[in-house]
## 1
Amino acid sequence: MQLRTLIVALLALSAPAAAVAAEPIQPVPAAKVKNAGMVELGKKLYFDPRLSKSGFISCNSCHNLSMGGTDNLKTSIGHNWQEGPINSPTVLNSSMNLAQFWDGRAKDLKAQAGGPIANPGEMAFTHELAVDMLNSIPAYKAEFKSVFGKDAANIDMVTDAIAAFEETLVTPDSRFDKWLKGDKKAISKTELEGYQLFKESGCTACHYGPAVGGNSFQTMGVVAKYDTKNKAEGLGGLTGKDVDRMKFKVPTLRNVEMTYPYFHDGEADTLEKAVDIMGKLQLGRTYSADEIAKIVAFLKTLTGKQPDFKLPILPPSTNDTPKPKPFG
């Protein structure tokens, strides 16, 4: 009798895990901080606009952590008010991506972190000038030495620290994750119907895993061509192959209600419009207004707990710190 009771109890405990495993989407795991000092340094660097030529643009300018890790613009604004070439993807849960940027040109967060600093259309600095700025500030030098054991910072340390901070920017505990873990009251009947429709339509062929995306590159316009004025060619711009033209990294759908506008060109300004276009272009399906509403309702259950921390107080510049050039 005791053995039977034990078996029943073990089966009950394993049932939620089995249910999660059977779904194409898994819960977002909580962040695991490997080096608290490096994360804290990375947080300062993420928010420090002095890593830009203007002294005005920081990582947070385009990946605003108060706005779902994006800037909610079609394309971002760079140095001297330059119009960016592509929509800014969210930094939230980006550690789960198979690669970074829409075209995957950076293999990981460390490789990505150095790109915007030296891009003339973004932060418009150089790695050398950014490092000189940091090394001119005693408080930064001391913090780099504490974390890395070196007397002076270099760009590898900078990108390591920013990446370490970005790895903590995950959003667990969404209502959908609670449903996955067994709380069947966490989402409504309409939201559940939206999820079932999302699966049955084939959306999970691309949007799966903990991030509900970010796992593959797919062609934008499988069934019908996607008309856009945006010049980005996705993976094809890197490989030069026709087969890769308009092939972009599948975006995460986590927190998607916060990361508008949608697509690489930012042309879909609402979730409803994005779902309608995706249905037609990727699946060859025209959703009814009711079906769109249900899928959108489901997508909004993917909003998780947003990063919550004290904003860093940045160390002050010194007389030797290079002066910003916001208008040059």
## 2
Amino acid sequence: MVHCKNSKSAYIALPVAVAGIAFLLSAVPARSASVAPQETVEINPSSGEQMLGVRVGLGYLTGEAGEYVYDETAGGRTVSELSWDIDSLLMFGLGGTVAPVSWLKINGDLWFNITDGDGYMSDYDWVLPGGSWTNQSLHDNTDVTTGFLLDLNVEVEALAGSQMALVGLVGYRVDRFEWEARGGSYVYSVDGFRDAAGSFPSGLLGITYEQTYFVPYLGVGFTGVFDRIRLSAKLMGSFLVSGEANDTHHLRNLETEDDFSGGNMWAIDATFAYELTDTLGMEIAGFYEKYDTIKGDSTWNHKNSGITTNHSDNAGADLEVGMISTSLTLSF
């Protein structure tokens, strides 16, 4: 994507977090083998105790989504590309972990936006093949009205030492974002090339766009425990992504519904956790996720005329987001 500017901060934040965790890992001295095992699985992955843990947190998310329209009658060339930025979105998180045995954890985490976030949208059209864009609209007044991340997974301990453990993951994710673009400026090709320019009324709702992804995934990770410090990192991926998208062009009274399947996703997260007491702890985490561009079919509903048309392989979507967060944890 070429139009996103501010969302790059999220993608810089995660490598910094990972580097910091790697530094802490190298700096923390190895714990003596004579130290007694911890009382909960949350602190010591090789402990035999059962555990129930809950967590609550705040996150700061940025990112960018892409929306594409292809001409299926002309070799699938791109005729429209919309870039939907997430410049800042404050998220609230709730999560829980159940460990019925020492080598198994069942995790669930839900993140959703507290208020509308700041965004930006750019829209480019190519009416003529093989040339520069013919139509453009830019929308500074874009709100991110929905941010929703749901992750359910089972974590199995594969290899474990006195301080380190290698884990495998099987999980399912649902990610949803929605934007509203208002006002903005335009350059159109009406009677000639880029011959018409102007602005939409401030506050006028132009386009509403929503993306939703459904993702079964596999992953690997590690956990390291050093006295009251726990470090963990996970790498996840899927080639079974399905999704849907809805676009409403309010000024044209046109609504499109897209369906996707067979897409790819990969994600990584890293966490630094510190045990404040035997039951209370805190976490600082970084998360990055990327969905490759996925193509699908679409239905166009022309509400003024009542005509509905179906199109094959003429819609596309992609997404990448990054989030840094801090959470309080409670283990029983």
## 3
Amino acid sequence: MVRRYLRKLIPVSIRTFISKIESFLLFEIYAYRFLGPFVSKTLRQRQTPLNYLFVMAPARSGSSLLGHILYNHAEVTGYGESHVAYASNHDLQHLIYRTAAVLDDFDPLACTYIVDKLVWEYPISDSILQNQQIKFIFLLRDPAATYTSTVKSFSGHESPEEVDKWIAYYLKRLKTLETFATQINSPQRCLTLRYEDLLGDTERTLDSFQRFLGTTAPFSDSYTVAKHTSRLKYGDNSETIKAGKILRRKFHPPTLNDAVFTPQKQQSVYSAYSDCISALKKHTQFQGSYLSQTSENLRTLAHKKSKNLRTLAHKS
């Protein structure tokens, strides 16, 4: 309760500055300079190479929930978003050090995969994309639900300017995901998942994780909430994530404010979303049955647009 109050009281700019100082001390000093040599020495005792799992998504697409499901598995570990670019294997080594710095119980000999979530536009080199020790989960969520979650999590209010800013980010992010999937072009190393299927078709989705990652044990719909999950830059700060399990429910797309997020703009993001899914299906494994829901959303938006045009014509 106190933490929630402080989040509202302290401006985001100040919290961001504090987070940067914290990150510098934790990673640049403790993880890289002090902890790194000890972790590297331990890693040399591994019988098999350590693998990596990158969750690729737009922000507010459910990556924190997915991360918790993954981290809860004995063969997988991670802590959230690193907020870094990946240019070489040196950056993968730094991911191990950062994970060791954040997680008190990190054991570099026990896990098979280390996870990082990438939801912002950080560059990833082709050598990283082609690295056979890295697998990728592409996570998407209904655009209206993604936008609504963004508003609730960040500004809390809507305006045409904020909508345009979000659309620009969202469309660019979808294009980036398409580009990465095309460059990787390896269904054996790439899985596409919809957040709605994680909530509404949970067993089948969890089974797909085990097949994709080749783990010995199945994945559970329950998890231990990471102590750092609500902190700035580490993931979701909502109460839903603190439930400790997947809150299963059938998806119902939220209703957007047409006066702010016009039907034309809605149709543009749903079209881009559909195009992204189609592109990902060509280059990745696909888990889910998005087509009927997406097509229905597009038909609804087309009807709204047609109705608005008729109204404008009648007024003129």
## 4
Amino acid sequence: MLHVTCRTYSRPALYGLSLLALLGALFAPVDSAAAPTVPRTVETSGLELITPTTQQSINRGLEFLALNQNDDGSLGGGSYYRRHVAVTALAGMAFLSAGNTPNRGKYGRNVEKAVQFILANTDPTGLISTPDARQQNPMYGHGFAALFLAEAYGMTHRADIREKLKLAINLIINTQNKEGGWRYFPVRKEADISVTVCQIMALRAARNAGLYVPKSTVDLCTKYVKQCQNPDGGFNYQLLAANGSLWPRSAAGLVALYSAGIYEGREIERGLKYLTDHLPRGEVFRNEAFYFYGHYYAVQAMWHAGGNYWRQWYPAIRDELLSRQAQNGSWSDMTVNSEYGTAMACIVLQMPNNYLPIFQR
């Protein structure tokens, strides 16, 4: 089997492969009962792990998201995350992960509505946020939304998406702090590992799609993330904060390195070792804080690592997620909302589809 591998922070020829993978799904509605198809040039070794029961679970989750999308294209309930750009972007990523693209596929219309919501909430500075959320740590949502736009642009090369995406990416580049990271607001002040990974993933996706990202921005981010790593292989929240390692942000730290083009080395080895000590074990982590956030990044890290790392991790989190799904197809998240939990779960479960360039090895 031929593998597509990107080992440097240069534009990989992944979008052409993704589009080839999608062609069969684009000109007719996606058959929700069928496993996704990908070309031989894209790795398919994970598809065997998406069992029929898993696919049914994914289908139910995607249908829940579609039914709960608002008329303006947004998703998200509750008071704090209502009609939120991050929740909308993650739902869009879940639809893309199933082989849908804007206006093509079973959920193509849902993808397009999500794109339009994100575009409508990109201000002239490039910040992606609804007006009422601009004082609520907007760089989290900005990173997820910019990532979604970059993936959508890579599949369509639409001028309207590129215009807003370029603004959003330039904002990220121009607000990197002197340490190399980002934090809650688009200013050159503090940094933390959690917000930083959102931004470097968006930068990587944009670079994959053909937008310019300075190498110096990536190099400084890489330095920052490496300096946040603890001796046990996990990651600190901030550079000088002695708050120890936690597995959700440690998974994010690993993905930040992968997004910067670092696939090998001592930092990767130590990080993977730390993460494997937190293999999903059913009830053990059911009520842990940042559950979906952590597994969103952990499954990416293990997919990139491949081999036994992936073979042990994916079935464990797959079976755990299947046991948590509600009858209406959703996954509950008490911190954010069910739309967020469902989008994250669908992304995790669909990682073996290998459709999106940001997730491809």
